[in-house]
Amino acid sequence: MDFISILSIFVMACFVGYYVVWSVTPALHTPLMAVTNAISSVIIVGALIASAEAGSMVAKWLGLAGVVLASINIFGGFAVTERMLAMYKKKEKK
Amino acid sequence: MLPLLASGADAAATPAWAMLAYLASGVLFILALRGLSSPQTSRAGNRYGMIGMLIAVVTTLVTHSIATLPEIGIAILLGGIIGFTIARRIAMTDMPQLVAAFHSLVGLAAVLVALAAFLDPGAFGIVDAAGQILLVSRVELALGAAIGAITFSGSVIAFAKLNGNMSGTPILLPARHIINLGTLAAILGLTALYAVSPMGGAGEGWMFWAILAAAFIIGFLLIIPIGGADMPVVVSMLNSYSGWAAAAMGFTLGNTAMIITGALVGASGAILSYIMCKAMNRSFISVIAGGFGAEAASTDGAPREQRPYKQGSAADAAFMLEQAERVIIIPGYGMAVAQAQHVLREMADVLKEKGVEVKYAIHPVAGRMPGHMNVLLAEANVPYDEVFELEDINSEFAQADVAFIIGANDVVNPAAKTDKTSPIYGMPVFDVDKAKQVFFIKRSMGGAGYAGVDNEVFYMDQTMMLLSDAKKMVEEIVKNLD
């Protein structure tokens, strides 16, 4: 993909992000932060590429370290979000 | 296409289905955030996020010749166990520290990926025929590494301040604005220098290392002068940075999932910072400049004039609560510190059974991060439809019989509306003075709120001060209600 296409996706995504985030209810702002944390660890893709193609040993180990860090975030972020969201309950009807 | 704007992913020749898979994963991330528009849809949203991540990881593994699958498996397993254990064990009051710690990991991971790409650009398909890293990729790498490093060191300081490893008092270096701006300018200058440098091969170019070092230092310098009261803004801001770091690496890899995610997270953090600033009536620039709370701490020792106030007992409070028709509870962080949220919900249950209408009013800065108080109440089984935001409930105080303030202070201080010299002037506050009665639970009359200012509400005619530990006082009230 060329730079301009990537840039177009990026700019559009910024707008999508702006409107989607404003629609998040303030009561869920903490889970929002936890889940954005988890999804920003999609950077694991870069770490996987670095560790997969063993062109350089240093790059491979840097990549593996990146995989560990991103995995902590992915599993931790989604799990803690799930834990929080499970606590939000509606009033019981009597 | 101009050769200048050629991007590395051309060389990597990602198959079309993989590009579509990354796009799908980006869309699933959008849906994950979209789900958070209501608690009912939020859990489905979280699942979409997990599926999106799974798709991204599997696609990457399938489209690259994996020589190191066992190592990668171990790395994921190791990280997964650590992350999962932390997520299970963390106390909800410690959520801000956890989020700060997670931000630091994203930042560091971005730095590691950028470094790996810098040392082994061939694996990322970002080299030209002569073995030089492409100009655009150099800029992306340098910026990605710099933002990642700032996120990392900044988040470490934010974590230390929130976790109490470091005092929340701002540390003010002389000439810090000049140092900070100079370092930022240096990072940008070095990035430009690196981009056009003839030293562009794998691992070449001292500028890259210099950028990294400067970025680690600036992250540290940016956060140390920021006081504890401004930490919600800082945590949101670092959230934003971690997104931009991911986006920068997404540009390098030409990866749609990373770019969409980076933009989403970047926007999310920026909007949360804005909401927090607005809730404290502080400009973003003044938060970043730091120093808030430094003066307040110094005036704390000054003798304050003694003014008359009414003190009540748990029995008085219980009696009047039973008589009330509408009660609005205003919880603040002090309630969470005293671990009073569970017994508070018990009190509300008893009152509801007696036919009293109970609502909770939450100020955006009630906790230590955006939405923190809502999570703490949800944990104590408070139904979310009894919990209201500042602008939705503020008009209802005029009809309320009792405003029940527990562990909050600055968010009910009328000085924010009237006293132009007050450090919290202009901050939106609850109109508790309009309620028929105000109960104010506070440990003692000494010690003011986080911003270190006196509060008129203590001395109003309709105010009854309940001086005790929040948890003990509410327990007493519950006993007296039965």
From TrEMBL, chain A:
It is a multi-pass membrane protein. It is an enzyme of class 7 (translocase). Its main location: membrane. Its EC number is 7.1.1.1. It is found in: Cell inner membrane. The transhydrogenation between NADH and NADP is coupled to respiration and ATP hydrolysis and functions as a proton pump across the membrane. Pfam families: PNTB_4TM (PF12769). The keyword Ribonucleoprotein does not apply. It comes from the Bacteria. This is proton-translocating NAD(P)(+) transhydrogenase. It catalyses: NAD(+) + NADPH + H(+)(in) = NADH + NADP(+) + H(+)(out). Keywords: Cell inner membrane, Cell membrane, Membrane, NAD, NADP, Translocase, Transmembrane, Transmembrane helix. It comes from Pontixanthobacter rizhaonensis. The keyword Protease does not apply. The chain crosses the membrane at residues 6-25, 32-52, 58-81. Residues 7-90 form the NAD(P) transhydrogenase alpha subunit C-terminal domain. PANTHER family: NAD(P) TRANSHYDROGENASE, PROTON-TRANSLOCATING NAD(P)(+) TRANSHYDROGENASE. GO terms for molecular function: NADP binding; proton-translocating NAD(P)+ transhydrogenase activity. GO terms for cellular component: plasma membrane. GO terms for biological process: NADPH regeneration. InterPro entries: NADP_transhyd_a_C.
From TrEMBL, chain B:
It catalyses: NAD(+) + NADPH + H(+)(in) = NADH + NADP(+) + H(+)(out). It comes from the Bacteria. Pfam families: PNTB. One of its GO terms (cellular component) is plasma membrane. It is a multi-pass membrane protein. Belongs to the PNT beta subunit family. Complex of an alpha and a beta chain; in Rhodospirillum, the alpha chain seems to be made of two subunits. GO terms for molecular function: NADP binding; proton-translocating NAD(P)+ transhydrogenase activity. Signal peptide: none annotated. The chain crosses the membrane at residues 16-36, 48-66, 72-91, 98-119, 139-160, 181-200, 206-226, 257-277. It is found in: Cell inner membrane. This is NAD(P) transhydrogenase subunit beta. The transhydrogenation between NADH and NADP is coupled to respiration and ATP hydrolysis and functions as a proton pump across the membrane. Residues 20-479 form the NADP transhydrogenase beta-like domain. Keywords: Cell inner membrane, Cell membrane, Membrane, NAD, NADP, Translocase, Transmembrane, Transmembrane helix. PANTHER family: NAD(P) TRANSHYDROGENASE SUBUNIT BETA. The keyword Transmembrane applies. Its EC number is 7.1.1.1.
